[in-house]
Write a structure and sequence with these properties.
Glutaconate Coenzyme A-transferase; 2 domains; seven-stranded parallel β-sheet; 28% helix
């Protein structure tokens, strides 16, 4: 990492293929470097990033594009910050050097017979970063699968490299909880055969995918390819036969799952990986009929405003692709969008609230919200006025929260809300 200079903007590839060896090498130079801006997106690692130590605060400044556990505490302590942006817009900001990447650090496969290495396991922001950087430093990694797509680099274009055998993080989830299973079942009931899916990572997405095992001719156009979709691809439920964009192939921008999934998609031409300027482009998402977007929330207020990036004013993640897919799927013929979440947090706090917490960010506006799902049911908001929305949301809140929410709704909406209770 001697090619990094003070003041440089340094990008680290993300997903389950964070080049930790390169991060550690950079952190060891903390005494000789100053004001190095660290840029990264969605990261899955086994602990805090090596450069995220308070004593390194003058050496490394985090400018996260999607805050994750490896950097969250460092930013909360004030040693870094978030650059807000719709995920689909970020590649253009990087290519125009509004986010001026000087050094791109990637984790790529061994070269093929023509000398090209694949880093499509996390093409999302890595591809524009590599295209923009003056220096590309690579972990050439025998355990990274060779995936087809646009995030390819010829070995002659790599400035410096280290060979390694460092498998991507194994991301597996156990069976869904009772709450996750109930939420997944509600969503699966609303998804028709032939739908094209965007679905996230975690217990609720996996439970939803479990509920789709008897569906037919599903497609995939998403950010993250996971074990749940891999199993549906294996079984033929996802065959991409009804898609209009890249028919016959699953489209994603990154892959995170088990070793079995990585083996399945290695050299698999039925899967194609693009940067998020492509996968998250609403004009491409809408091309697929019956596009379905499934996202989550930290909390939702009684009018349908969705907070998904912060807990109050503490940044937790970012907008990610939620806006891109919520908008693109809503424009699709027959498209549906879902916000799915348990009715309460693990600490027992209601996630359906009268008002968002002070400082909370609105990731999805009340004008975009369609279906909201908890373990208590699924409600559709798009055709409802504000009072009707409140009534619907309260019906799927935790039973112990409904009375207080009902009082808040009456105080806010008055007779318009009260008269809904008078109807037979």
């Amino acid at each position: 990492m001697t090619l990094v200079r003070s003041g440089d903007w340094v990008f680290f590839q993300g997903s389950t293929s964070v080049p930790v060896i390169l991060q550690e090498a950079l952190a060891r130079r903390h005494e000789e470097l100053r004001d190095v801006k660290i840029v990264s997106g969605f990261n899955i690692t086994k602990g805090p990033a090596p450069f995220c130590k308070p004593e390194y605060r003058d050496s490394f400044v985090v400018n996260s594009l999607f805050l994750c556990a490896d950097q969250r505490q460092y930013v909360a302590q004030g040693y870094g910050s978030l650059i807000p942006g719709f995920l689909s817009d970020l590649p253009a900001l990087i290519r125009r050097r509004e986010i001026p990447i000087d050094v791109a650090c990637i984790n790529c496969s061994l070269p093929d017979e023509n000398g090209y290495c694949s880093y499509n396991i996390s093409a999302d922001l890595a591809q524009p970063a590599v295209e923009s950087a003056r220096v590309v430093i690579a972990q050439v990694n025998k355990s990274i699968p060779y995936l087809y797509g646009t995030a390819m680099i010829h070995k002659s274009d790599i400035t410096a490299a280290v060979e390694c055998d460092d498998p991507p993080v194994d991301m597996q989830f156990g069976p869904p909880t009772e709450i996750e299973a109930a939420i997944g079942a509600h969503i699966a009931e609303e998804i028709p055969d032939g739908a094209t899916l965007q679905i996230g990572v975690g217990g609720i997405p996996n439970a939803t995918l479990n509920g789709l095992r008897n569906h037919k001719h599903l497609g995939l156009h998403t950010e993250a390819m996971t074990d749940g979709v891999f199993r549906l691809m294996q079984s033929g439920v996802i065959d991409n036969s009804m898609k209009k964009y890249e028919p016959g192939r699953s489209v994603a921008s990154l892959a995170l799952g088990s070793r079995h999934m990585y083996e399945f998609i290695d050299h698999n031409k039925d899967c194609i990986f693009y940067d998020v300027g492509v996968t998250n482009d609403p004009s491409l998402i809408r091309m697929n009929p019956n596009a379905v977007a499934i996202n989550s929330a930290i909390e939702i207020d009684l009018t349908g405003q969705i907070c998904a990036d912060s807990i109050g004013d503490m940044i937790f993640s970012s907008v990610g692709g939620q806006h891109d897919f919520m908008y693109g799927a809503s424009l699709s013929e027959g498209g549906k969008t879902f916000i799915a979440m348990p009715s309460r947090t693990a600490k027992g706090r209601g996630k359906i609230v009268a008002h968002l917490a002070p400082g909370a960010g609105v990731v999805t506006t009340r004008f975009q919200t369609q279906y909201v799902v908890t373990e208590y049911g699924c409600v559709y908001l798009r055709n409802k006025n504000l009072a009707e929305r409140a009534k619907a949301l309260i019906s799927i809140a935790h039973p112990d929260d409904r009375e207080a929410l009902d009082r808040e709704a009456f105080a806010r909406f008055g007779y318009t809300y009260h008269r809904l209770s008078m109807k037979p």
